[in-house]
Amino acid sequence: MPARSRSAERPALRIAGVPVRAFKGGLFVLGLVPVARWMVLGLYDRLGANPVEFLIRSAGTWTFVCLLLTLAVTPLRIVTRQHALIHVRRMCGLYTFFYASLHFLMYIWWDQWFDPAAVLDDIVSRPFIFLGFSAWLVLVPLALTSTRGWMRRLGRRWQQLHRLIYLAGVLALGHFWLHRAGKNDFLEVYVFGVVLVSLLLWRVARAARRWWSTPDMPVTMFDRGGHV
Ligand code: HEM
User: What angle do CA 150, 84, 202 make, to 5 degrees?
Assistant: First the structure.
């Protein structure tokens, strides 16, 4: 009888009953829906009176949505016990970087006409642009080190580095808040802010619970001294 391969023996990983590969495929397609929507709206001349503003803002909003989804993967995985969800976190993170870079590129292209001096001047003179740029900068090393190779190379430091996504979230919230402050329209900023803070608090509470439940010095009857 031919030897069966190891992968054939392992049961396929599933998320909510769906094989991980199919789930990831569906998520990949879903992640491109905003781009498809912009194309369709553009084709039918439905991008509004100011298409550039519409597209830059829409890309900014989708960046934030992807960032929050990336942060939500671990809590969702633990609460729903769908541990295979870990396999979609990287894709969510890369979509965050994709939309952030598209948002940045649209701004450099349509707002600043690829003038590096104008971009630099805007970054240093407008706090709202400074915060957005800082958020994007924080995402760069996270995207670059998102591969298995970098995970292996960095070991424990990989996790510490990737906690910077919370910093990107806080900077992005400041960016969004300052952008809306001029218009005195904060509803979406509050919604995104409440989700971000809840996810942050969940992490802090979990870390605190772990810290309390870890004894300083394990004392058992098998210790060297023999004391219980
Ligand atoms: C993680 C990175 C970023 C996130 C999450 C983000 C998010 C957002 C959001 C949510 C908006 C407002 C959308 C609305 O009002 O409906 C916005 C607007 C804007 N962002 Fe960002 N942003 C990021 C990075 C950047 C960067 C790097 C730049 C440029 C240096 C930038 C420039 C702008 C501009 C110019 C607008 C206003 C567009 C307009 O009103 O015409 N953003 N961004």
Answer: 80
Burial class (CB in 10 A: 0-12, 13-18, 19+), 145: middle
Do 108 and 119 meet the contact criterion of CB atoms below 8 Å apart? yes
Q: Residue 106, Cα to own-chain centre: how many angstroms? A: 20
Q: What is the pLDDT of residue 12?
A: 77
- CA 124 remoteness from chain centre: 25
Question: Of ligand 1's atoms, which has the minimum distance to the CA of residue 133?
Answer: 27
- Which residue CA neighbors atom 37 of ligand 1 most closely? 57
pLDDT confidence bin for 8, thresholds 50/70/90:
low
Q: Show the ligand 1 pocket: residues with CB < 6 angstroms.
A: 53, 56-57, 60-61, 63-64, 67, 100, 103-104, 107, 111, 129, 132-133, 135-136, 139, 168, 172, 175-176, 179
pTM, two decimal places:
0.89
Tens-digit pLDDT profile for residues 42-96: 999 999 999 999 999 999 999 999 999 999 999 999 999 999 999 999 999 999 9
Tell which residue, 196, 160, 158, has the closest CA to residue 176. 196
